[in-house]
Amino acid sequence: MDIVHIGGRVPEALARFVTADDVLVIGTGKTGFIHSRVFGTVSLQIAAEAPCSVVVIPTIDLRFRRGIVAGVKDDDLMTAIIGAAAGEASARQEPIELIHSSFSGVIPATVETRATIAARVAAVESMVDAGLRVRTRYTQRPPAEALLDASRNAALLVVGAGHPRGAGHALGAVTHDVLVNIDAPVLVVRRTAADRISPGSAQNS
């Protein structure tokens, strides 16, 4: 293990130090309930600015947790998210629960049917070892709320970085809300490095 001292603003310094192929692991303290894009913690800023996938581990008791939860929707990160979740589940020999929310709230969203999601999930299930249990759950609840509830006792929650519209924000609103209210280790998957995440990276770090 090498210890490297970096200077400057922490999020920017770490973003310069890592590459898209890395998985950055950071810790965070629990924070209050905040919606949308109000950045209030260093860990949020790091996750937003890092060019690679990031594992955020909260200050909670990590014992007795089981299962991998992943948030999926019909976008170009879906395969990467399921692949990352499958890798972690295989390394831990634990079940996977895929969560899809059709909630659109007040923001116009692409219409995503259950059939479309089911078809895409089935197409990438070959990534999952035959012996692993995979469950897909559909909900109309707000996605961050559904993911936080589902992962309350999970070993890991896997989400995509999202596709925010506003300049200067590298996390989507759902991922932001998940990290603000984090209650399990969270792996934030980036498109550029998603296919290279090593199984067990969050577990072994």
From TrEMBL:
Gene3D superfamilies associated with the record: HUPs
Source taxon at top rank: Bacteria
Alphabetical list of InterPro entries matching this protein: Rossmann-like_a/b/a_fold, UspA
UspA domain residues: 68-190
SUPFAM superfamilies on file: Adenine nucleotide alpha hydrolases-like
Pfam (any one): Usp
Protein name, UniProt field: Universal stress protein family protein
Organism annotation: Microbacterium hydrocarbonoxydans
Species classification: Bacteria, Bacillati, Actinomycetota, Actinomycetes, Micrococcales
